[in-house]
Amino acid sequence: MSDSNARQAPGEGKRLVVGVSLYVRGAGQSLWENGIFQNCLLLILLLRQSPLVAEAVMVNGGEQVADPQMMLGEWNVPLLSMDEAMQRCDVLIEMSAQFNADYLRAFRERGGKVVTMRVGNDYVIDIERAMFNKPSGFLFSGAPYDSVWTIPEFERSCLHYYQTGLRAPVTIVPHIWHPMLFDKARATLGPGLAFGYQPGKPRWRVTMFEPNICMVKTSIIPMLVTEEAYRAQPDFLEIVRVCNTLHLKDHTTFVHFAKRLDIVDHGLTTFESRYAVYEFMAAFGDAVVSHTWENAQNYLYYELLYGDYPLIHNSPFL
């Protein structure tokens, strides 16, 4: 005997149209700005392999036209407006752009299902926003969700934060990556440049790529690690390049810290802007030192190891 109160899945008996949110800012926006844009595209390509999915599309959570650097056209990924997604999609996966609560209520009222996929350490980020008077996020907007997805690196720090705060079950899903996007990017390198470790050099050019915008990923411990190695064996080091630090290099606390290190005092360290990994390592790097706190799955790691570069890290997932 069937249960007349059983909740029917959207589009049950047919293949689903799934939309993944992408915040489109407009001109100058690149696929390589951060890992979440790549993650959105890879998720779309993965969903296309499912026998349950008829079509996987991007949903524009912004109001601009996608820059060609986003590569959506190359992979034949449709970019729908929110109005189009309301009519066409059976499932929405909120990822790069967050939908407002009223929109999601309306989507669910017409029978759609909504997943929010969290790929940042929201627990720490929200604490910092509140304590240091940073712009508010919208994680707890009152939007209704059928499920929360997150990846293994955030299970310990964020699972219960999501589960209780968002009032939805949490599922741990794999962190997906594939080199096909990265291969397209590194193919654009100029003459004489190649991404990939070149062994046999007497001294290393050490690089750090931590964003330095949140405590989960900073250059402080990588600098300390490199300092200890330099004190133990000075001859191994040619130069240290600390990327993503232009906003820190004149801060009194950071300056006082850096000046206590021989790698700075001896003129071996430069503080750099933000760069794409494949470009910077091809021209300026031999090895990378990294440290994260509860943020141990990163495309940076996969890309470096794909290029056979030495990676000094603290990730339990590698």
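Next protein, fold it too.
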Amino acid sequence: MTETNAPAPFLRTIKSFVRREGRLTVGQQRALDELLPRFGLPEGEGPIDLAALFGNDRPVTLEIGFGNGESLAAMAEAAPELNFIGVEVHRPGVGHLLQLVGQKGLTNVRVANTDAVELLKQRIPEAALDRLLLFFPDPWHKSRHHKRRIVQPAFAELVASRLRPGGLWHLATDWEHYAEHMREVLEASPAFENVN
């Protein structure tokens, strides 16, 4: 009998989110149908050529969990000299952002309706991002759920590998215990410096 140290193929990774689908409005569904093919990240495997994706080599900001997309659309409108990628698991939020992209005529936004951790691991090249935004992630209040928090040492390493040298990771939470946890994780990482 031969032993192997390979992980079992059926093991699941712990997710930091729960999909709560909700209902799509007619406008959100139309935006998903009509605009996602143009503004969505391309299907496939391996790193995406971000310069080819946007048609330019401007700095790229990636926002994880953009909610309904109002803030991301406002940032993109205010800074047309920058590129933005929004990642959100909630389809109505993706549809709403796409509506805003269409209404405002934004060309510097791309959207992914997927797990941000998997996107960073598989599709975002190393040292490709200038900024990563993570505002108000689920704090997973109960101690037994803390393992689900997205800000963990392994995630910090992943983010560090995707940010260019001098890149910024902006974090925000309104849950004091999660803020302390975030600070502990980042202070333990040699890749980050608190520039508050």
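About the second fold: The beta strands are 60-64, 83-87, 109-112, 129-135, 163-172.
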